[in-house]
Amino acid sequence: MLEYKRIYAGNDNYKTSGKDFKRVFPSVYFYLVHLLRIIFYSNRQARKNIYDDVRWVNSSIDVIDCLEKVGVKFDITGMKNLSVIPGPFIFVSNHMSILETLVLPGLIHPVTKVVFVMKEELLKFPLFGTLSGARDPIVVGRQNPREDLISVLNQGAERIKNGKGVVIFPQRTRSKYFIPSSFNTLGIKLAKKNNVPVIPVAILSDAWGTGKLLKDFGKIDPSKEVKISFGEPIIIKGNGNEEHQHAIDFIGGKFKEWGREDLIK
Fold this sequence. Notes:
Blueprint: E1 14-15, H1 26-47, H2 53-69, E2 74-77, E3 90-93, H3 99-108, E4 114-119, H4 129-134, E5 138-140, H5 145-161, E6 165-168, H6 186-194, E7 198-204, E8 226-230, H7 241-257
Parallel strand pairs: 2-8, 3-6, 3-7, 4-5, 4-6
Antiparallel strand pairs: 1-2, 7-8
Helix pairs in contact: 1-2, 2-3, 5-6
């Protein structure tokens, strides 16, 4: 019987240990030796309709392990908040790189099941499309905000009814900056409608850069530590404005704590 390789959230925090990492040509080594292997076996499982919860989580953990092998260090905090009260939850997070899309399942899903809100175009992407479609995502077109709102509220309610939380990136597109003015209230609206808590997530993932030719394949920079912090669950009361600001303040506060206030726009 397949089992999760590990459950990071068994502890509140996780920090990469001081192992002897391979640092020579980390980008080449990570993409050609590790990531293509993970994509290949995960796609094969998805085509066979066996890319289930455990395989999804284990491939996510494989990504973390392989980033560590090329020298990228992780510092993850607040994981006790994933189980301090019963889920499901709505996770609202800044979105800096593809790293969080690949890594968050390995951290969250073993404790409280989730799906992601994804752009429709990602399901057609040659490498990641099959995998994305296999994990029951909430699909939006990103062309008509009102239609996207209705899709997320309706599909989100269905997922929540089935015991799954939802990961939303309210800035709508990846950016190396955290832009509070672009951080929409979609996650708050979904949480309020379904009476479930929100967990804000702050992510610093510029260790995986954005590529000039292929956006998902940028520079892997081991000199930059990946930081992920989960906030305490927020219960939505009233119109949700106060809770929305609380989520923004949590993420912005973490960037300041990490000494990266320069990335707040």
